[in-house]
UniProtKB/TrEMBL annotation:
Annotated TM spans: 16-37, 49-70, 99-120, 147-169, 181-208, 240-261
Protein name per its UniProtKB record: ABC-2 family transporter protein
Superkingdom, natural source: Bacteria
Keyword terms, alphabetized: Membrane, Transmembrane, Transmembrane helix
Presence of the UniProt keyword Membrane in the record: yes
Amino acid sequence: MFTTLLGQEFRSHGRTCLVVVGLDVLTGLLLTGFGMLPVPVLGQSCATLAMITFGALPVPVLCYLGFAYWQTMYGRRGYFTFALPVRGRQIFAAKLTHAGIWTLACFVVVPAMLFLRAWLLGLPGGGTAGDVLDTVRGLIEVTGARFFWAGVAIMIFSTLCLVVECAAVMSIGARSRWNRLGFGAPVIGLVLLELVNQVLSVLSTFLVPVGVDLVERRIVHGDMATPLLEAIRTNGDPTVIGIGSVFIPFLLAVILAVWAVDSIEHHTSLR
């Protein structure tokens, strides 16, 4: 049944998601074309806007999927969704898997488009694709291969956790006790989620005894608070930074997902 639900998600929303991706890519390419013009202010501005447009691709896609989630779960189409002979956790899992696949697709399209942008902008000056690759390799070498790819993995994982958290907050906000607030309940929930996330991130950065030595570029264990507070006190650059905040998105995603499943299966109230 899960595969049937997942297939229905792609049939219902796949075309719109492709349109959103296509419009974003087309806009970015158009701006890149203007960026290739030998007009200093216009060219530089359009080149920058193209980079922002490509980099922001996941935002409109996930915003649409969030809107679709609310409409199909708690809008007028919610009556049909909850009439299906399946458990709420299967519906929740199918929608999250669908959103997760589109998120991963965006993380493939974005670097490809940024690479294409850099190559196109370099063409007037005789640049080649090899020059762009050399620039990327140089960035990886400066950052450190392990640190670079770890950062990429953390960014993708954190985004997937954010997808789970936002969907869960919408489902929790639709519980009968908060139903009178309408869409205001999940909005308030998202604000509270951000506050909790920031507080826990700061605390975990100081208290979790795992960090990164920025000088030697390696994982270290021990007191994370003292070096950071000392750097703040002396107005210097920290040499060790705690990475406890990396685990917070996963922790919140698990807790909220469990709460959301309970809300969907036992406390949903359609208006």
